[in-house]
Design a protein that fits this description.
2 domains; 4-stranded mixed sheet; 3-stranded antiparallel sheet; 6 helices; about 15% helix
Length: about 280
């Protein structure tokens, strides 16, 4: 109890918005948890296992050591490496609320770890072939600084298999992203509904960001064969497969710090390794 009181005292020094309070209420019926809004939780330096009630979402939020996970109407999904992900439903589909982090397929087999100057197979409109080596990267080849917050960056070969995502989940197709866009009001504003709010991870001005979807997109940048690592803080690149996922043509969806738009399929000058949100 002493440690709890000290923690609450320290938290009370933070200036909160009207919907937040760090009061812990104990009565004969149980415990009423501290309440904290979306904007206020970004001001904290949480510890793994920290729990709050979010009055804006009407949901419990807990910190898994890397991300805040909403427990509203969902189960937490774990990958084979033990990383946990929240989920949210958008347009009839369930999406992960943080970027994939796994270094292994869901059958236990490993991917190749890439770094600066690694070779890989992927380019404009290219198709997967027998020379493909599934590879994952960390931004600037620095897992300590970036893995927990932004996840891993996966190449084309890794995402065009059927077992990169946890069992029962898959890499989103063009149709999946189009469905999300339509559910969030169309491509001109859907990006804002998908982006995490504030400037903790996004660079200014983070135009139109509301995160009304609960998707909590973060700008993890990407890796390009010729240009290296780029766009951290400015762009979130996410894999999408099109042409029915059969011919496995590569493309990406992107969100930008200076736009509320959800930019659709792009094959021009594609980012070779980028973030992945699994869907089911």
């Amino acid at each position: 109890m002493k440690n709890l009181l000290i923690t609450l005292l320290l938290l009370s020094q933070i200036t909160l918005s009207a919907q937040s309070t760090f009061e812990l209420e104990l009565n004969s019926d149980g415990v009423v948890l501290p309440r904290i809004g979306k904007s206020d939780k970004m001001m904290l330096s949480p510890k793994e296992g920290q729990l709050f009630y979010n009055p804006e979402e009407g949901a419990l939020m807990y910190y898994n050591g890397a991300d805040w996970i909403s427990l509203k109407g969902q189960v937490v999904v774990n990958d084979i490496d033990g990383n946990s992900y929240g989920t949210v439903k958008i347009g009839g589909l369930e999406w992960m609320t943080s970027n994939l982090k796994t270094t292994r397929y869901n059958d236990g087999s490993t991917l190749t770890k890439g770094g600066s100057g690694s070779s890989f197979f992927q380019g404009k409109g290219e198709l997967k072939n027998s020379s493909c080596t599934p590879t994952y990267y960390y931004y600037n080849n620095d897992s300590t600084a970036y893995a927990a917050t932004y996840g891993a960056l996966y190449d084309f070969c890794a995402v065009t298999t059927s077992n990169l995502c946890p069992s029962g989940w898959r890499v989103p197709t063009e149709a999946d992203w189009n469905s999300a866009s339509a559910a969030l009001g169309g491509e001109l504003t859907a990006g804002g509904a998908l982006k995490e709010t504030g400037l903790v991870h996004w660079n200014s001005p983070n135009t139109g960001a509301t995160n009304s979807s609960g998707f909590s997109a973060r700008p993890g940048g990407g890796y390009h064969q010729f240009f290296g690592y780029s766009d951290l803080g400015n762009v979130a690149y996410f894999w999408r497969l099109f042409n029915n996922g059969i011919t496995d043509i590569s493309a990406h969806t992107r969100l930008q710090h200076d736009s509320a738009r959800l930019f659709g399929r792009s094959e021009d000058n594609p980012v070779t390794a980028q973030s992945l949100r699994c869907v089911r």
